[in-house]
Design goal:
conserved putative lor/sdh protein from methanococcus maripaludis s2 fold; Helix Hairpins; 4 domains
């Protein structure tokens, strides 16, 4: 064996010896280690507030928000054209104008001339009819005279003709003259009869013309009256777009007036909540229209910025929004109640955005819980989750579990539960974030009065 081979073998033996020695040392150390002492750590309890479930009947209050508006808002537009010659001194935005006063006046001169002309035509036709009727009466009397004259002329003609033909008394000229007299009398009677027969037609035509002229005179009078535009009710001016000297055309809106004698608020409510809790009249809907029944006109409380409270009444259902599944109900407030709040001194006016509280039906057998004690998520069956403290059958201590509950309705601070809980259940009020199931609880119990 060469010197190099001996060196390699020697190095391998030394390495193996070192490795075996290290392993032996490690095994000896492990066997000589003493076990760590066991420490018994007690289970820590979660401190929570709880409330015992107690069912009761609760009157439901439905709340919503809405903007105050005037019930009647009217756009004023002139009905005749012309130039503005006068404007009411208070015709400006926010101005108050009593009913019956003239808002503005259009130049009446052209309309006055047409009215006078129409009246003159009426008078002329009335005189014509009177003259025709009088002449008709006179000519009817003349018919008798003309008939007598014709008879006399006929008798004279017959007499002269007979004397001439039988007795040879007289001349042919006398016979011709008497015949001419008879024919003249006969023609005069025929002409007068024809004239009398035409009088009723002429009178009817004149009366028709009179009716047309009277209609034109009435229209002229109406147009003359339309040159003065008056306020139909005690009004507040919302918009104005005219001034003295301006030319206006029919149908062009120039003023918007609001009637603040009755105010309204349209409040949007979830359709499910509204149909469940709003009070409807028990009598059937008298209308044959396919629409909601009549609401019970219950008193409604209206508040604005926590500075004033007014009373109104539930009026009607205004619209149904099929996209948002909401119902708009209308609250009506007469001016005396708008001017005299239940609390505060501010008057209720158009444009205020108010909170409305509507008394609804009675919720039967529900339990009131603070909103923070009920989970936000809703399962496919419509249930939410609450934490409940229950006595453990193993150690008799209160431990954490969950229950599924169905919501009856909600208010600003509370949720009312109708299903899922039993009388006496201890519902956890403390907000817990991802607690361990069956956690030990250290509870402080409150009653419902203390949680309000």
């Amino acid at each position: 064996m060469s010197k190099n081979s001996v060196t390699i073998v020697l190095r391998a033996v030394i390495s193996i010896a070192i490795l075996v020695g290290g392993v032996g040392t490690m095994v000896a150390l492990v066997k000589s280690r003493k076990p760590a002492p066991q420490i018994d750590t007690p289970e820590r309890a979660l401190r929570v507030d709880v409330i015992a479930v107690s069912f009761k009947d609760v009157p439901v209050e439905i709340t919503g928000l809405g903007e105050v508006r005037s019930r009647d808002v009217v756009q004023i537009a002139p009905e005749v054209p012309g130039r503005i010659v006068s404007v009411h001194p208070d015709l400006e935005i926010g101005g108050l104008i009593p009913a019956g006063e003239v808002l503005f006046e259009i130049d009446p001169r052209d309309f006055q001339a047409r009215y006078d002309q129409s009246n003159a035509s009426v008078s002329q036709l009335e005189n014509t009819i009177a003259r025709l009727k009088k002449q008709y009466s006179i000519d009817q009397g003349r018919l008798t005279t003309y008939e007598s004259t014709r008879k006399l002329a006929k008798a004279e003609y017959d007499r002269v003709k007979r004397l001439y033909e039988k007795d040879k008394v007289g001349t042919q000229s006398q016979v011709g003259n008497s015949e001419m007299a008879y024919n003249s009398a006969n023609d005069a009677l025929a002409q007068l009869s024809q004239s009398v027969d035409l009088f009723p037609i002429r009178i009817n035509e004149a009366e028709d013309s009179l009716a047309s002229s009277e209609a034109q005179a009435s229209l002229s009078k109406t147009n003359l009256e339309r040159t003065k535009i008056s306020v139909p009710f005690d009004s507040r001016v919302k918009t104005v777009s005219l001034e003295r000297g301006q030319y206006v055309s029919p149908g062009m809106p120039v003023v918007t007036l609001a009637n603040d004698s009755i105010l309204e608020i349209s409040v949007s409510l979830p359709s499910e909540q509204a149909s469940k809790w709003l009070k409807f009249e028990k009598s059937p809907n008298p209308s044959k229209n396919a629409w909601f029944g009549n609401l019970t006109r219950v008193p409604v409380q209206i508040s604005w910025s926590d500075t004033a409270v007014w009373e109104g009444s539930l009026s009607r259902i205004e619209t149904f929004d099929q996209d948002n599944r909401t119902i708009n109900v209308v609250i009506r407030i007469p001016a005396p109640k708008a001017l005299n709040p239940i609390s505060g001194t501010q008057s209720l006016v158009e444009g205020m955005f108010c909170k409305v509280t509507i008394p609804g039906k009675i919720a039967r057998n529900v339990v009131e819980l603070p909103s923070e004690s009920v989970g936000f998520e809703i399962d496919k069956d419509g249930y939410k989750t609450v934490y409940v403290a229950v006595e453990s059958p193993d150690d008799g201590q209160l431990r954490l579990t969950t229950k599924k509950v169905r919501e009856s309705h909600i208010t600003e601070d509370s949720i009312f539960v109708s299903e899922g809980l039993l009388e006496g259940d201890l519902v956890v009020l403390t907000r817990l974030i991802n607690p361990l199931p069956n956690s030990l609880l250290n509870t402080t119990q409150y009653d419902s009065a203390e949680t309000d």
